[in-house]
Design a protein that fits this description.
7 helices; 260 residues; 28% strand
Length: 260
């Protein structure tokens, strides 16, 4: 199953610089959005898990890609049951990676889940219902994961956003292979809350896949978070904003969370 969430940008009408120092500001959301989609790779293996539950013996013998009907498909696993081999086809996706695609800026990242776990598991988590700040040690560990991606020099200013992604993802969902795709109408660095909309839309998809919020995922169309769930979402998005900006006021993520 794929879950999508969107969050609006913001515009500050008065008090743009003063708000960082604790003064009052007037702000509003507007109808340019960042859209985030999340799909866990394990979804494609659900039928396989059902077979295993029936007592079949798994033999993993490697990957054999085939191009069928316009897409790559792998016959990766063979199940041995009473001397009979049963092939299980699944959608050709690396089961052990966390992928991030930032479509609007043309950046693609991929990490081995094992590498992320090796680097971050000693920090604890997932924290899920307890929004947690990224410690100095966590920042250092996450920076190492980002640096391994050979970040383009011309876009190095976006590296903190990727760090925020890794912190929010592992803090809320732990070490699960998945693909996250982000697209945005909001220009970066224009003062329109692009980073906040990124953090809010990302957090919304991550929480939607948890038991911490009340959403009927069987319902079609866009769903709305309840007030208590919005509060949790906003606090997590603020933690992402702190990684990106250091000491943000919290206004941007709040407007993006509660704005229509």
């Amino acid at each position: 199953m794929e879950i999508k969430a969107r969050a609006p940008g913001k515009i500050i009408l008065a008090g743009e610089h003063a708000v960082v120092h604790g003064s009052t500001a007037v702000a509003a959301s507007f109808d340019l959005f960042t859209l985030c989609s999340l799909r866990f790779h394990s979804d494609s293996g659900q039928a396989y898990m059902n077979w295993v539950d029936l007592g079949l013996l798994e033999m993993v013998i490697g990957r054999y890609p085939f191009y069928i009907m316009g897409r790559w498909v792998c016959y990766e696993r063979f199940l041995l049951w009473m001397g009979v081999f049963v092939e299980l086809a699944y959608n050709g996706e690396n089961d052990d990676t966390l992928n991030l695609s930032l479509k609007s800026v043309g950046l693609e990242f991929s990490w081995s889940v094992g590498r992320i776990r090796e680097t971050l598991s000693h920090l604890g988590g997932p924290f899920l219902s307890t929004p947690t700040s990224c410690s100095t040690e966590a920042v250092r560990c996450i920076a190492a994961l980002v640096e391994e991606q050979n970040f383009p020099e011309a876009k190095i200013g976006l590296a903190t956003g990727v760090s925020a992604f890794l912190w929010l993802y592992t803090s809320i969902q732990g070490f699960k292979p998945a693909t996250v795709v982000v697209t945005s109408d909001l220009p970066v660095g224009a003062g329109l809350g692009s980073s906040a909309a990124f953090c809010v839309s990302l957090t919304a998809t991550l929480l939607a896949y948890s038991d911490s919020v009340s959403l009927d995922k069987n319902q079609q169309g866009w769903l709305a978070y309840g007030d208590s769930d919005l509060d949790l979402l906003n606090k997590w998005a603020f933690e992402g904003e702190k990684i990106i900006h250091g000491k943000p006021s919290g206004l941007d993520n709040t407007v993006s969370t509660y704005g229509m």
